[in-house]
Amino acid sequence: MNKEALLQTNIDPLLNYFNRIIPINSEEARLVTGLFKPRLFRKRQFILQEGDVCTHFYFVVRGCLRMYKIDEKGSTHILQFAVENYWINDLGSFHGVKPSSLNIDALEDTVVLQITRDDLIALYIQAPKFDRIFRVLLENSFIRLQQRLLQNISSTGEERYQSFLDLYPHLVNRLSQVQIAAFLGITPEFLSRLRNRRSRATKT
């Protein structure tokens, strides 16, 4: 995508997202349009690297991002995928203005609408409704994290894979086996055996 095409990025998906939580008026829509900036990240480009401060909140218009940690053994642990209409950032780094322990990169060419911490605070002050909107957004994110944590400590790898298929059927064909395994906390080899077993069971 060239720069001209990027600049034609429509703000409507973001406005529609906010309207589904709490309806916003034309003045509030104008504020959003002025404070959120479009940006293109190419496939494999970093949005955030460990040790840097997370400076933006990102809303994905199109494409796919992942947030992950690489441990001391070199293993990748994926915390989140973000595709169309998803949000992503390292909240601790963003709000604490401190170095992140996480990485975010693009798995596909990705267009986001991004807002800085200062502009987000300005949005809260100028239109308090967004304070409530982002509180709902963060509460929903926290609930999903709680559910995932509970699932990781109480479910088998096969159960986690079935839950992934149920919750994110739109992601299965956009992610590699290695990426899905890193999200589920299982090895790619185990996921391959699991898929083969399910495929054989479907044919019989």
Question: How would you describe what is shown here?
Answer:
The chain has 204 residues and is α+β, with helices and mostly antiparallel strands. The protein is 50% helix and 20% strand. The strands form two sheets. The chain has a four-stranded antiparallel sheet with strand order 1-8-3-6. α8 crosses α9 (188-203). Residues 20-120 form the Cyclic nucleotide-binding domain.
The DSSP helix count reads 9
What overall geometry do the principal axes of the alpha carbons give? globular
Helix proportion = 40-55%
Cα separation of the termini: 45 Å
Could you give a short account of the major beta sheet? 4 strands, antiparallel
Physical arrangement of strands within the biggest beta sheet: 1-8-3-6
Describe the oligomeric state of these chains in a short phrase. Answer: single chain
Low-confidence stretches: none
GO molecular function: DNA-binding transcription factor activity
InterPro entries: cNMP-bd_dom, cNMP-bd_dom_sf, Env_Response_Regulators, RmlC-like_jellyroll
Protein name: Crp/Fnr family transcriptional regulator
Pfam family, one: cNMP_binding
